[in-house]
Design brief:
It contains 10 helices and 12 strands. The strands form 2 sheets. It has a 7-stranded mixed sheet. A hairpin with a 5-residue loop joins strand 3 and strand 4. Helix 6 runs antiparallel to helix 7 and helix 7 packs across helix 10. 48% of the residues are buried. The protein binds zinc ion (ZN). Zinc ion (ZN) binds next to helix 1.
Length: 302
């Protein structure tokens, strides 16, 4: 088990719950009840000739398959590993070779140890490994074996895979994964098409890092590039640009209220996301968590 502090921030939105600002682990008591994993079904979607996504509970998984074996992006929760492995075997030769984590949260890393035992070498940013290693109950077998601070390129199954660090965005260990030939970008959670953006400041995330990550993604994407977020449906670059624009608008509204001396409660009461609430998908989602994160970041002098 990872610590609640690491686990819950993705999980909450996945379950459609609304969380208050969670800058400190002290809020761990607000974590929602564990979902019943036995009821979760893994849905496999073919996105390119040798590339699939797998959705169950937690962050979307991506897999590149072929004669060289499986390259996997993220792992969801540990109790789902068996189901996920079965789904992967159904569309591959079942040779688990590599698994990269887009970021530290438990709905993306929980199954790491299980896939390592199946043969996958786990890759992650240095910061991510450090956070996992510090988490309660961490076991060496579940930790990334390969860490990196700069871009990494892998060559498998006729594909070029680029691992691109996105510093201090959703967390301090984010990676953008680019499948060049398949024309796929996997962003992890610095971009999500479900719910409002989530800046996990307690795990080293920042607004500016999120904005830089989105800008990088938009710049790398062509009109047909398939952008697969950590949570929510696959999108194109226009959707990512729209989210960046929304973040800038909301940022400026919050900054203005801070300049006027408003408290966080007053900023929340001002409903600065109201005109976006109907467009942002996700059951029970409001902008309050995001506003709280912006308030905390903008209130703090840089
Ligand atoms: Zn996350």
């Amino acid at each position: 088990m990872r610590t609640a502090a690491i686990r819950f921030s993705c999980l909450a939105l996945a379950a459609g719950a609304v969380l208050a600002v969670q800058a400190q682990p002290a809020n761990r008591g607000a974590a929602p009840a564990q979902p019943d994993y036995s009821k979760v079904e893994i849905k496999t979607t073919q996105v390119a000739p040798n590339f699939y996504t797998l959705d169950g509970q937690g962050g979307t998984i991506g897999i590149l398959v072929g004669p060289d074996g499986v390259f996997q992006v993220d792992a969801q929760f540990a109790p789902l590993s068996e189901k996920i492995a079965t789904a992967i075997r159904a569309v591959s030769n079942g040779r688990f070779r590599f698994l990269v984590n887009t970021h530290v949260h438990g709905d993306h890393t929980g199954g790491d140890e299980n896939f390592a035992k199946l043969g996958a070498t786990i890759l992650a940013r240095t910061e991510l490994r450090e956070r996992l290693a510090q988490a309660a109950g961490a076991t060496p077998a579940g930790l990334p074996m390969v860490t990196y601070d700069g871009p990494v390129t892998l060559h498998m199954n006729g594909e070029t895979i680029e691992l691109i660090p996105i510093p201090h965005a959703h967390t301090d260990g984010d990676t953008l994964v680019h499948f060049v030939n398949a024309d796929v970008l996997m962003t992890g959670d610095y971009y999500r098409s479900l719910g409002y953006p989530n800046i996990d400041r307690a795990n080293g995330g920042s607004l500016d890092g999120m904005l830089r990550g989105l800008a990088r993604t938009i710049a790398m994407a062509g009109p047909n590039t398939k952008i697969i977020p950590g949570h929510g449906a696959m999108v194109d670059r226009n959707a990512v640009a729209a989210q960046r624009d929304m973040m800038l608008v909301i940022r400026d509204r919050v900054a203005k209220l801070i300049q006027q001396g408003k408290t966080q409660e007053e900023v929340l009461a001002a409903k600065v996301t109201a005109d976006y609430d109907s467009k942002v998908t996700g059951v029970g989602t409001t902008g309050d968590r995001f506003i709280g994160q912006l308030y905390a970041e903008l209130k703090t002098p840089k």
